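Worked Example 4.2. Consider the chain below.
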Amino acid sequence: MTDDLAPHIDARRDSLIALARDLIRIPTLNPPGLNYREICDYLAARLAASGFAVQLLRAHGSPGDSDRHPRWNLVARIEGARPGDCVHFNSHHDVVEVGHGWTRDPFGGELDGDRIYGRGACDMKGGLAASIIAAEAFVAARPGFRGAIEISATADEESGGFGGVAWLAERGHFAPDRVQHVIIPEPLHKDRICLGHRGVWWAEIETHGRIAHGSMPFLGDSAIRHMGAVLAEIEDRLYPLLASRQTAMPVVPPQARQSTLNINSIHGGEAEPEPGSTALPAPCVADRCRIVIDRRFLIEEELAQVRAEMIEVLDRVAARRPGFSYEIRDLFSVRPTLTDRGAPIVRSTAAAIERVLGRVADYVVSPGTYDQKHIDRIGRLGNCIAYGPGLLHLAHQPDEWVGVQDMLDSARVMALVLNDLLG
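Applying the procedure from the previous section yields the following structure tokens:
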């Protein structure tokens, strides 16, 4: 990288470590949405001191927003000395539940050698910290830069992003006339550019039955048995069909280059007692059974086709089971997104990776969705990628960590991108 930019990044190594550790120590758990205002206040003070104009924006009316757990977002902007494009770094500040199996304090921000441990270290507070350091270093080295730089820390990516990027996009914050380039520092490895993601369709399927006494099941009609027939049809017919479909998208890991379906949950019958309770379950034939499905689909598939295939499964079961009926309810859907490799943000980031790391960038697509979906679909901004430090397989795992050197290298890449687009 250019000689005058490198020292500005290297001089901020201790600041980068301290920033990442501080962010991890704020437990922004989602659900339910804890400490969103606290982390936004922390970042607001940091970025205001670096010359950014800061907005704190609550996503009133968004899913999950309440006075107890308000959905707070931060958008910070610094203007250059001359007109030009705006480069926006977007990171989500929420983290998933801790889970079991930790050997370290999940919110301790422990530094051990080159690694910083904690929930959100990899996904994605390390990336947020790297983007801030990159922006601060660039502004210090190029006080006469053109255009503008924005940094956002947004809510609820882990639950769909509706109280964060979607809410902001609906209000014009990612309109192409005010933002031209977006980098989302998700943990996709420091030598990879993520161009987009597969599509997703979540739905709830309910089979119907007739309640009766459990000692006389012949007087009822078990919705659970009906659902068992649905699951058998999925197993025998739909799974082999999906496994036969392959995409040209460079999805990682390679196993995700096919269409996939997961049964997220299943419940039938009356509500059961809590584990350890002395109460017995209700002695009834189940008159309702529900599953939630998670269907990930390819850019070569259409959402209408994906939905029709599931309805075909249900109709085949109905044709051979007397009394079978069902309901299907759409919960959530996102079409696949794929940024062109010739887009300016892709070309600039690829060149920066090669200069910093000495190797050609790898192009990938995420198996799951992230907030690019809202920037593309609502903001109508296609010049967007995910690029950041961290190893993807560590996300949501116990003893999650991010490497200090990886954050430094990613910050160098980001600073070079700013230099190319705004310098």
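Residues 96 and 158 are 7 Å apart (CA to CA). Residues 6-197+336-422 form a domain with the Aminopeptidase fold (CATH 3.40.630.10). Compare this with Example 4.1 before moving on.
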